[in-house]
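Design review, sub-item: ligand-bound model
Attendees: FS, YL, KQ
YL presented the inputs for the flavin-adenine dinucleotide complex:
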Amino acid sequence: MAPTDATTETDVLVIGGGPGGYVAAIRAAQHDLDVTLVEADAYGGTCLNDGCIPSKAFITAADVAHDAANAAEMGIHADPTVDMAALAAWKDGVVDQLTGGVEKLCKANGVGLIEGTATFEDDHTARIAHDGADRETEFVAFEACIVATGSRPIEIPGFSFADDHVWSSKDALAAETVPEELVVVGAGYIGMELSTMFTKIGADVTVVEMLDSALPAYDDDITRIVRSRAADLGVDFRFGEGASEWHEAGGGIEVVTETADGETAAYDADKVLVAVGRQPVTDTLGLDAIELTPDDNGFLATDDRARTDLDHVYAVGDVAGEPMLAHKASAEGVVAAEAIAGESAALDHRAIPAAVFTDPEIGTVGLTESEAVEAGYDPIVGEMPMRASGRALTMNESAGFVRLVGDGDTGALLGGQVVAPEASELIAEIGVAIELGATVDEVADTIHTHPTLSEATMEAAENAM
Ligand code: FAD
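KQ shared the predicted structure:
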């Protein structure tokens, strides 16, 4: 490196301003460290700009439209139309409010912000490249670095996101019109959330999935409920088919699929949304310069203090591995910042919840029954069906259940799986109980408000006993 006038010296360089990076930067600054955060694109990262927030805004709006149109049983008759441009503008407003808040919060905490792409020059220096040639290259000299560069959607051969007809999840969440026909490739959580949402606002959706079921990360009895509800809503599932190519046809496109036996099928569409997973972003970083090598899956391996193989380089969030979730990124960001500040923080992966915002929602935390057996426990399991929940019935939503898994010897709560309306909220109570070391009978003894969905958690605990 040839240091120039444009060299910033900082205690902590944070690369990436998503929920991993900005939370780490703020926490490090709160420990009186001098912190510089570099962001290549937009503060808030994938979560605020292209992921959690815009998807949940669209999903909520789609639920409003769908519920209004389907309330005849309650004596309510409506035929709502969806003005997608207005919906997109509302969603953009929510995103802007949150991303603006992140920038303000960073500044209020004294975090130095640089817009540009950071690449390592050597162990303690990064070069910052700015878009547009009118600004000179900057260097940042740092004592410690937190890499929080996140992930990007995976492309499949023949389906380039550069083509207008091929959507990544980011493109889908920037939609200003509802496609009449949409093919979704991949029935993981992003594919399932977005296909359910687009179906509810009037798209004719076909989901193509190479495996023989949706949401392979979840137990069968959970995915069956979500899949059959999506099918009832009109999603046409094509399991055991992989998307092999697409071409323009009759004003739209035709997506061709192939089974393992070589049988082909073709589906008409206006757009094809490819949602087959995400890969960590490390290629922008020039890792060779610091002799750090990603693992076989492309992630930066870390210990429970978020530290990589280099003592002064930490990695948090999607770039540091599964689960690729915003709250896990933020939790790791806090640990990395505290570790750098000399605190004794460490990451505990036992109670990281996960939610899928399908219809009904899924919420999970801790161990499933089979994971508990694998981990050497003799589990007790209690379940409460939502059809026996008074509140669920008053919401006209009776599919699903709450299941709790406990340790048969000590009674300690080990995990929970919820498939129900508001499962993303219900799972928080179970997470807190696990985190606090509660037993199943303590959950059963906790008085819950009536009538609420959360009573089902109490009843599941009683059933486990
Ligand atoms: P990111 O949020 O990806 O941020 C990384 C940042 O680093 C980016 O802003 C990028 O521009 C920047 N960057 C990259 N390289 C450089 C460089 N060299 N220099 C400077 N800056 C750089 N998670 C949930 O928990 N709940 C959900 O409901 C949920 N829904 C989702 C829906 C969708 C459609 C998608 C795509 C994701 C969703 N996620 C959800 C996942 C969540 O968005 C990610 O787990 C989270 O954003 C990861 O945070 P991060 O800080 O690790 O990375």
